[in-house]
Write a structure and sequence with these properties.
5-stranded antiparallel sheet; globular; binds zinc ion
């Protein structure tokens, strides 16, 4: 995240994308998968709008939307993230999204947040 790159593991032997992080490839059992950069572009696989501040630091963000985003450039692996603009906008499964690395005030490293895909950027 500090390098503002989305990196997922990928097996050095069979090239399978792996997420969450593992010591071994579940497909071919090769140890120590490599970390590869992936374009932070994806599709909303599922989402949820939260009205309760489960995390104290996000209390000021309620209601907020958490999205499970499928990454077509990483074998369809799925990662979670907030969609800051989605609280007041329509969101649907299948929507194209793009990630941005954002550093919250007082935070040590940035987090990946998801926004509606804009091909002008
Ligand atoms: Zn493998």
């Amino acid at each position: 995240m500090k390098a503002e790159e989305l990196r997922l593991q990928r097996c050095t032997n069979c090239r399978t994308w792996i997420w969450g992080p593992q010591w071994i490839c579940a497909r071919c059992h090769t140890f120590n998968p490599a970390w590869e950069s992936v374009d932070p572009i994806g599709v909303v696989y599922a989402w949820s709008r939260s009205y309760h501040p489960f995390i104290r630091e996000y209390a000021h963000r309620t209601p907020y939307v958490t999205a499970l985003v499928e990454l077509p450039h990483a074998g369809g692996r799925r990662v979670l993230g907030l969609m800051p603009d989605a609280a007041s906008h329509h969101i649907a499964i299948g929507d194209a999204v793009q990630g941005r690395f954002e550093l919250d005030e007082g935070a040590v490293w940035p987090l990946l947040r998801w926004y509606p895909f804009d091909d002008r950027t």
